[in-house]
């Protein structure tokens, strides 16, 4: 009630009749017209710099100042190249890989 006044309690008693579309949950509430307007987005970024630091991957469409390094070791396969080829041939002959 402090934020919305006496009418604010109505939303608690009776939720709005605006269900979230299940096929659009990840983009619900995003104003795409504003998101696609470079003038409005520039104003938003300039007016709210605290919300758009360099470490925020969702902040701006530009490339972040530093990217994460994730070292990946190749998997350790116990088979030789010939054994892998033989296994592939046997699977192709005995298993329907298209189903």
UniProtKB/TrEMBL annotation:
Protein name: Uncharacterized protein
Ranges annotated as biased composition (Polar residues): 57-66
UniProt region (Disordered), positions on chain: 1-23, 47-72
Organism listed in the record: Rickenella mellea
């Amino acid at each position: 009630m402090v934020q919305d006044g006496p009418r604010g309690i109505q939303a608690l008693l009776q939720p709005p009749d605006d269900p979230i579309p299940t096929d659009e949950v990840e983009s619900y509430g995003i104003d795409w017209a504003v998101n696609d307007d470079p003038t409005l987005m520039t104003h938003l970024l300039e007016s709210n710099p605290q919300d758009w630091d360099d470490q925020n991957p969702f902040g701006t469409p530009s490339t972040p100042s530093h990217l994460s390094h994730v070292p990946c070791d190749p998997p350790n396969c116990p088979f030789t190249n010939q054994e892998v080829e033989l296994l592939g041939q046997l699977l192709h002959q005995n298993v329907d890989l298209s189903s």
